[in-house]
Each structure stands twice: as C-alpha cells, then as structure tokens.
Amino acid sequence: MEIVINQVLKARFVRFVLVGGLGFVADAGTLFLLISGGIGPFAARVVSILFAMFVTWRLNRAFTFGASSGSQISEAGRYFSVAASVAALNYLLYAGLLLIVPTCPPVLATAIATIICTLVSFAGYGKFAFRSS
Predict the structure, then answer these.
(1) How far is C-alpha 59 from the chain's CA centre?
(2) What does the alpha-carbon distance between residue 71 and residue 100 come to, in Å, rounded to a whole number?
(3) Of 72, 75, 85, 98, which sees the most CB atoms within 10 A?
(4) Among 54, 96, 116, residue whose Cα is nearest residue 79
(5) Rounded to whole angstroms, what are the CA distances from 73 to 68, 70, 128, 130?
(6) Which DSSP string corresponds to 5-65?
C-alpha cells in the first residue's frame, strides 16, 4: 500500500511541477504583452502574477489535486492565501540568502528559494487549498 501512495504522490508532484511551468509561461507571457502594450513593469508584474495564480489554480484543480469538496470561492481563497504566503516566503529566502551570503549570485538565490517554495506550496495546496471539508 505504501508503494502505491508513494507512486501517487510522485505522479502528483510531477503534474504540479508541469503546472508550475505553465504558470511561469502565463506569467512571463502576460508580463511581456502588458509591457509591450505600454503598461509599466511594476504594474504589469502585479497583473501577470495574479493571472499566473489564477491559471495555476485552475490547472492544479483539474490535473494535480482535484476539486475540494467546498465551494470554488472558498477554495480560491485558500489557494490564493497559500500562493501569497509562498510568494512572501520566496522573497524572504531570496533576500536572506543575498544578505547572509553577499557573494551568492541572485539567480542561484532565486533557484534555491524556488526549490524550497515548490515543496512548501505543494504541501500547502494539497493539505489546505484543495482539502476536503
């Protein structure tokens, strides 16, 4: 039984990572289009992040975790609260690494923060956002 559970979790995590990749494409593509359309990079980034969160919520709901047993509105609220918390954690880890290790390249700090946050968000979405009521 434990082997089956591990296989399900591995497959779910792979789907989660793939959805995250699509979320990145949605984020970067939206950012590019908005900036190309004359919107400033800071305002465009807010919109692109929110759009990517919406896209990943819908895809994770459909392909990774399945719908929760509650309403979609409450599920969306839980999803976005996890996403916002993980975004804050990502930034704190990134900034902390750069402050503690000034020679750390920013891209490496981003990668480390993202890997840690991927694991945190996977757990948060699975246990909280898409939980059964």
Answers:
(1) 11
(2) 43
(3) 75
(4) 54
(5) 11, 8, 14, 12
(6) HHHHHHHHHHHHHHHHHHHHHHHHHHHHHHHHTT--HHHHHHHHHHHHHHHHHHHIIIIIS
Residue 25 CB neighbour total at 10 angstroms: 12
Instruction: Give the pLDDT confidence of 75-104 residue by residue, as tens digits.
Output: 999 999 999 999 999 999 999 999 999 999
Tracing tokens 């970067």 back to the chain, one arrives at 28
Taking the C-alpha atoms of residue 40 and residue 101, their distance in angstroms, rounded to an integer, is: 31
Q: Is 101 left (phi over 0), alpha (psi -120 to 50) or beta?
A: beta
Rounded Cα distance between 57 and 128, Å, is 13
d(Cα 11, Cα 15) in Å, to the nearest integer? 6
Neighbours of 106 (CB within 10 A): 10
**Is 0.90 surpassed by the pTM of this model?**
no
Q: Quote the DSSP letter at residue 128.
A: I
